[in-house]
Each structure stands twice: as structure tokens, then as C-alpha cells.
Amino acid sequence: AGPGQVAMYAGLQELGVANGEDLKETLTNCTEPLKAIEQFQTENGVLLPSLQSALPFLDLHGTPRLEFHQSVFDELREKLLERVSAIALEGKVEERYKKLEDLLEKSFSLVKMPSIQPVVMCVMKHLPKVPEKKLKLVMADKDLYKACAVEVKRQIWQDNQALFGDEVSPLLKQYILEKENILFSNDISVLHNFFSPSPKTRRQGEVVQKLTQMIGKNVKLYDMVLQFLRTLFLRTRNVHYCTLRAELLMSLHDLEISEICTVDPCHKFTWCLDACIREKFVDNKRARELQGFLDGVKKGQEQVLGDLSMILCDPFAINTLALSTIRHLQDLVGQDTLPRESPDLLLLLRMLSLGQGAWDMIDSQVFKEPKMEAELITKFLPMLMSFVVDDHTFNVDQKLPSEEKGPIPYPSTIPEAFTKFLQENRIACEIGLYYILHITKQRNKNAFLRLLPALVETFSDLAFSDIFLHLLTGNLTLLGDEFALEEFCTSLFDGFFLTACSRKENVHRHVLRLLLHLHHKVAPAKLESLQKALEPTKQSGEAVKELYNQLTEKLELRKPSPAEVTETPSMELPLPTVPTPTSR
Predict the structure, then answer these.
(1) Please, which residues have CB within 8 angstroms of residue 13's CB and are 6 or more apart in sequence?
(2) Which of 28, 150, 479, 523 gets the most CB atoms within 10 Å of its CB?
(3) What is the value of pTM for the model shown?
(4) Residue 481 to residue 483: CA distance in whole angstroms
């Protein structure tokens, strides 16, 4: 008998049930094999008196005994599985689990027998606490571990963090990869970008759903996943782990898993913020609610700020807070109000500050809200408002009948303080970048070219981060026609993108993405020099080379073939008339 045969009968002997090995032995040591087989069939067949007379009838129809026994077996197994599931729901809790434990004790020795295994697994699945000894046996056997239900695996995982980590790790890698693929997608659009999917849609993603299922209602496993996310965020500074932290909590919220939601102190805050992210705006009512949660952090519970800051560091939260800030600033211009006089604006800054300080807080384990720099509110934001005023003034000037002095030029200089803020203050930099995205989306070329030089050096190179460049490239499609102008291209490419291409591979990728989309709008001479400047080096990664090859192919297709070029003059001769079929 091969290993497969042995597995088929695994554990029968322990229960005193004859198996294939016993039959082999009987036949080897007997003088009359046929009689021995008949006796074996009688002793081990289905012991129903009425069946004895019916079996020869099946023989007449040519139905093998194996087929008959197999169908009886399958039928009985189905009934047993139904019965196990029913026992798990009936009677008093202690009694039903006692029945299942007894059943497990009797059947566990057959767990490796493929035909019986589903029954044993079903019994374990319905037991809230499988005996430790049995769990260890399952854990030690790769095939058994693979075959057991997630309900049993949870019981194994909760005491084996390393094993749980091995299961979760590939999912987390997949999640980060999916996010990066969206940021570097070749589809560039102002309508469909990284932030377009609603929170509810995002939570339906494969990784979030799998993690939600693995956790079930188990608080211990939920805590382990949060610990993994915190550790990875600290190790990599990758903000997508913060997104997953919020998505996971809200996925459990959708399923109404109160066992976990009620013990996560961030639940209500995240739920409220989730509604803001859905609307891409923090309205006054929700602002009050969020403020209430922040003000309600009691002494001795400051550690919750670490979790709240991670929820606020989620790019989807930052995006919502920054967009709301820009909207508030515009409203304040219309109301002749200063930023310091707007409590709603101050709250948005407070949350931005908490989100942007997440890494430092979790790293230092000092749980207190970061101090807001007064100059951000008294100098930087009024400066942004003055840019909005400059645009209004310029637009009004354009409409006035021009005097002899000629049209007033658009202001071309930027205050030195603006550039300094973008370099030294993280919150100022984030808001400044969102303001630039805002004017680009408004197709405001003048304002864009005026502020662009300030982006070459920013706090922690934020202007060269993937999320900003993803959004900027999308918004630049609205200024497509400007790419035909030398001045615009020189400012954008030579003055901004190319300053970082050689030292930052991601910037190289984003420029190539943009050109793949807009190459037909760029002036031919400029396109040629860009093609040279963007040629990959030996150090360039596969993604850059692939994008560059795609661009080269597209440009080759646009070039007229040499034959066409030489024949051009002959086109000036009168064309011979070709008779159409009907005129014959």
C-alpha cells in the first residue's frame, strides 16, 4: 500500500475497525480466500438484516459493492455533518459543547482519513475552545492546518503571534503594492484619481475583507494586526498602513462587530471622520464632534492620541482636511476674516498637525498633541489668502477698459517667506501643495507658474512625494494646451521635474507617465530634448525603462516615415483623377 492508501485508513485500527491492512493479512494467512472474503464482508458490512437479501439484487444489476458502500457512506456523512451543525445550536451551552467535545474525542483519531476529515473539522469549527492538545496536533501538521476552518485557525493564531504574522504578512505586502499601482497607473485623469473611490468601496478590497474574516470577533487578533501595522509604519514611514488601520476598523464597524468596535477607543472618531472623507469635506457639525473627541482625551489615557494620530495620518484623511482648509481660506477672503478668528479652520489645522505628527509620536512614545506654530496662522495662511486676492484683482483688472498705461501684468514674484515656510514647516508645506493643486485644477496658469519655483525645495521633499505628483499630473491634463508653449514647458520640466529626476526614481516615473499622456501636446523641439533628458541610466529600475520604451514607441509612431518625407514635394503636382466604380 502506498502513502495514499495508508492515509485512507488512518486511525481505523485505534478504534478497533478493520482496514485494508487487516484484510491483506487475513488473505495472506488463510487457506480458502473466498470464504475469508465473505466472512470479512459479513463482519464489516452494513449490519442491517433486511439488507442481506437486497444486496444480491444489486449484484444482478452489475452495481459494484464499493459503489453501494460509498453512496451509503456519503449519505451518512452528510447527515452527520448536518447533525453536528444542529447540535452546535441546540440545548444549553454547556451540554451542546460537551456533546461536541465527546464526539471530537471519539473521531479525532480519524482526522487524517480524507473521507472522515470533514466531519472532524466540522466538530472543531463549532467548538469555541478546542482542547489545547488537539490544536497542537493540528498546528504541527501542515496539511491538517491548511484543511481546518478559520474558526479553528483563530484559536491557534491567538497564542502564536509568529504564525499569525506569517499569514498576515503577504496580505499587507499585497495591500501596499495595490496602493502603489494606483499611484503609478498609466491612466491619468483629473476625474478618477487615487482619492476617487469612496471609503465603503475601498473597504470591499480583497485584503481588507480577508483580514476582517481572519480576525472575526477576536479582539486579541485585532490587536495583533494593529501592532503589525504600527511596527511597519514605524519601520517604513509608509502612510498606506495608516489607511489600512482605519479601513479595517470601519470594515468591522460595517459588520456591526461590537466585540471589537466597543473596545477600540478610536471607533467613534474614525466613524465620524469616515463620513467627512466620504463627502471630501469637514462640515461644521462634524467638526464639533471631532473636536469633542480630541478634547475628551482624559489624563492617563493620552496613549489613545497615538492611535488617533495614525487615523489622521491616513492620506485620505489628510486629503479631506487639506481640501477643507483651502475651502475655508477662500470663504474667509470673501468674509474679510483672518484665519485666527475662525475656530473651524483652527480645528482643521489641529487635526492636520496631529496626523502629520503621527510617526514622531509613535516613535518617541510621547503622547501629547504637537504644538502649533503661531506664525502658521498669523503669517503663512494670510499669505495664501493674499494670493487668492491677487487672482481676484488681476481678473477684475482684465475686465476694466484699459487706460494708456496698458494692461497690468500678473504678479510674478513670490514672497521669500512663502518659500521658507514650504521648506521648514510641514503643515504649511502640505497646505501650500494643496493650494497649488487647487489653482492647477482651476486652470490658473499664471498662479501656477508663479508658485512653481517654491516647490523645488520643500519640507522632507513633499513636493516629490507620490501622492502629490499623482494628483499634480492629473490636474496638469487640464492645462494640456499650455504644453505647446516653450516657457510653460521650461518652467515645469527644467525648473521643477528634472531637478529631481536623477536622484528620485519615482519623479522620473511620474514625468514619463505625464508625457505618455500629453506627448502630442508638447512642442516637437521640447519633446526631443525631454526624450534625451529622461533616458534611463544603468541604475534605473525596470518600471522607468518600461515607461521610457512605451514613450519611445509612441513617438516613433508619430514620426513621418523617411519615404513620406522625400515624396512631399511631388504632392504639389496635380493629382491624377481616379475613376470611381460607378463612372465606368
Answers:
(1) 19, 21, 22
(2) 479
(3) 0.84
(4) 5
Residue 146 near residue 153 (C-beta atoms within 8 A) = no
Residues 504, 461 contacting (CB under 8 angstroms): yes
DSSP class of 159: T
Cell 492617563 belongs to residue: 300
CA count, 13 A, side-chain hemisphere, 16: 2
Alpha-carbon gap, residue 201 to 108, rounded angstroms: 43
Cβ proximity of 50 and 148 under 8 Å: no
Q: Nearest to residue 127, comparing CAs of 93, 161, 157, 158?
A: 93
Contact 322, 302 (CB under 8 A): no
Q: Do 231 and 271 contact (CB within 8 A), yes or no? A: no
3-state helix, strand, coil in the chain (%, to 5): 75, 0, 25
**Which one-letter amino acid corresponds to residue 253?**
H
3-state secondary structure of 511: helix
CA distance 152 to 397: 73
3-state secondary structure (DSSP) of residue 37 = helix
For 554, other C-beta atoms within 10 Å of its C-beta total 13
In one letter, which amino acid is 262? T
The sign of the dihedral angle between the CA atoms of 88, 93, 96, 97 is positive
Residue 27 near residue 37 (C-beta atoms within 8 A): yes
Neighbouring residues of 244: CB distance < 8 A, sequence distance ≥ 6: 172, 175, 207, 208, 229
- What's the grid cell of residue 489? 514647458
Amino acid at 224: M
Q: State the cell numbers at 268.
A: 467613534
- DSSP classification of residue 248: H
pLDDT tens track, the chain, 584 positions: 444 555 555 656 565 566 667 667 777 777 777 776 767 666 666 666 666 666 777 777 777 767 776 677 677 767 766 776 777 777 676 777 777 777 777 777 777 777 777 777 777 788 788 888 888 888 888 888 888 889 989 999 999 999 999 999 999 999 999 999 999 999 999 889 999 999 999 999 999 999 999 999 999 999 999 999 999 999 999 999 999 999 999 999 999 999 999 999 999 999 999 999 999 999 999 999 999 999 999 888 889 999 999 999 999 999 999 999 999 999 999 998 999 999 999 999 999 999 999 999 999 999 999 998 999 999 999 999 999 999 988 888 888 776 656 678 889 899 999 999 999 999 999 999 999 999 999 999 999 999 999 999 999 999 999 999 999 999 999 999 999 999 999 999 999 999 999 999 999 999 999 999 999 999 999 999 999 999 999 999 999 999 999 999 999 887 765 555 444 444 444 444 555 555 43
Report which of 344, 202, 372, 356 is spatially closest to residue 281, judged by C-alpha positions: 344
**Residue 328 near residue 286, CB atoms below 8 Å:** no
Counting beta carbons within 10 angstroms of the beta carbon of residue 37, is it exposed (0 to 12), middle (13 to 18) or buried (19 or more)?
Answer: middle
Cβ-count burial of 42 within 10 angstroms (0-12 exposed, 13-18 middle, 19+ buried)? exposed
What is the rounded distance in angstroms from the CA atom of residue 387 to the CA atom of residue 563? 53
